[in-house]
Amino acid sequence: MTANGWFQIGFYFLLIVLIARPLGIYMANVFERRKTFLDPVLAPIERLLYRLTGVEADKEMRWTEYAIAMLFFSAVSMLLVYLIERVQQWLPLNPQHWPAVPAALALNTAASFTTNTNWQSYVPETTMSYLTQMAGLAYHNFTSAAVGIALAIALVRGISRRERDTLGNFWVDTTRAILWVLVPISIVLALALVSQGVVQNLRPYDTAHLLESQKVVSQDASGKSTTQTITTQTIAQGPVASQEAIKELGTNGGGFFNTNSAHPFENPTPFSNLLEMLAIFAIPAGLTVTMGRMTNSPLHGWAVFAAMGILFFAGVTTAYWAEARGNPLMHGAAQQVSATQAGGNMEGKEVRFGVANSALFATATTDTSCGAVNGMHDSFTPLGGMVPLVNMMLGEVIFGGVGSGLYGMLIMVVLSVFIAGLMVGRTPEYLGKKIEAYDIKMCMLYILIFPLLILCFTGVTVLLPHLGLSSLANTGPHGLSEILYAFTSTAANNGSAFAGLNANTNYFNLTLAFVMLSGRFLMMVPMLAVAGNLARKKIAPASAGTFPVTTPLFTILLVGVIVIVGALTFFPALTLGPILEHLLLYAGKTF
Amino acid sequence: MRKQLITACLFTLVTTILLGLGYPLGITALAHILMPAKADGQLIMKDGVVIGSKLIGQPFTGPGYFNSRPSAAGIGYDAANSSGSNLGPTNASLIARVAQSVQAWHTREANYGNAQTDVPIDLITTSGSGLDPDITVAAAEYQVAEIAHVRDLPQDQLEQLLRAHIESRQFGFLGEPRVNVLELNLALDRMAAEHKQP
Known about the structure:
heterodimer, A: two-stranded antiparallel sheet, two-stranded antiparallel sheet, B: three-stranded antiparallel beta sheet, extended
């Protein structure tokens, strides 16, 4: 570990703190339909969009109507991306002439992008046409993020409103999230990324003539070896920057290329890396401020922000420490820090980022539901790789996905307030709203669906040698980690992977698609039910027995509840995976 | 219900045109007006043909060039098939591969009087993308003696060339210092050519 490494991590978080407030206040203005500086440009587009699509902008929706609109929109847009994938060979902007995407893979990918997961069972540069990436995949990066924001805003309205039946209009919230928040920031970010070298073109792949031609010896099945001379390199191109910007900003994470933000055309410089990491945290961090504003309790927003910050630092510290230690089994390798190298475990990492920025990126991308990677998590040390896994297991509430992070966190807040109420023997209240049996039932449904998906599917998969275990690239405890990671990542709608697992099989494509859809929509509906129920309640004046949700005590309780719920659920699985692997690594055992 | 479904269809259609076509094509146009070379991948031309991209690593494995890192992309540095090795830290084939690379470097460098025993870690590990254009300064210095010998160049001149090609941390503190292997080797070729014709 180096002082510069820590400085970069601290500097990154400082920028997030600075961005959160202005962005949060701006978003509060956007969703309360107050004036913003972008209105002269965007208001006419907004009106035209409502006219074309038949949205009655002033008609508010009950939670059930809100949920139905959300489900219809998700279903229709998912169907469209599936169709685009299946007929891409007949559509324009396919210079490499990629054929139709096979059905199971197309379904998995459609589910993946609609649910903001961006799990990728495919190698994009050898599967997807430019049109599919632009109009199918990057399109969902906008809409799935906007839907997440809309739902979070609906929950915040549920908390702040009194004796009302409605939560706002789904179409209006989604439209405003797209036009006022996602599009303007994406345009600026995309151009900033191009300035760093992220490509943005519609060219066919280029062919470069190598400076030093290579002799490659390969063996065929019969053991006969043949020598090939390689003199050229094919360089994949594409409209990357536009997708890269919204991929991070919407915490989607689906790479334009197979290796995502490790690929030099997606993330060429340390500054592009910083921009991408800032984009990942910006909206989720800002939404805590938005929530504070809209509930008239700015300090509550910051108390939630602080809880997220504590968990973030716990993760990044562990990951950086573990990766900087290196791999004890690599003898004869200089892994220690020196004046000329950063050292550490460099398998699966890029030189321009080193261990500090790789650990930071891995933490940020899994704290949120982003899932972009700038190094291969599968090759992290056992404890370094456990950090992304645990971040996701905590339910993607450490800033979390855009929108989904905030509503996930607010569910944990309701649970914390409930536990605090039990401890003092009073009916729990949250910002003046009595928390009752129905609310807690819905919260528990939200909390329990998640581990149920992960543990059941992981358990079943490790019992299937031909369908499950045959896809593993690594055996021993690391193999369990690969499967556990896959189902955790998809249930949490994260999308990063221990990428050694070959997930492009019918079994994994279909089960993972089911888990992604369940992990999104089965959790959104009870959350909206809580929002609808809270909106109907009266506000009771605070009394001496009210547990304040603006204090450090509240922050500590919230962190405690998140860690305990996560640990109680997943500790046994983690013991058999990364923890066991760590012990065996230092005992010198390989698999 | 029916009305919501119609709105969902229309909304999908209109936003697909706006976000799926308008936005990326607009950015493509803007990028080509403002920064055409960067938008197209900073391709390096020599005698009218593309010989690589500044950002994409190339395989260099033989003596006489600064070697790049091992790569797990296709058969090595396949820029149409990016990939990491995805081998876990306790994977026996990873540990064996690294041990083999260490052995190979030791054998090779011993011939040129390089007494350093520990090989810089990036020279024996594959990168995340398989296309890493860079090596660390340590990895480049490790190879100087060999290249000076093979290319018959004075070692101090070579070290000077290397120092001129170190990219420091961006803005003084971001990322890690590094050396772009393709650019360094192109400069090496130029230097060797000048050296031959006094």
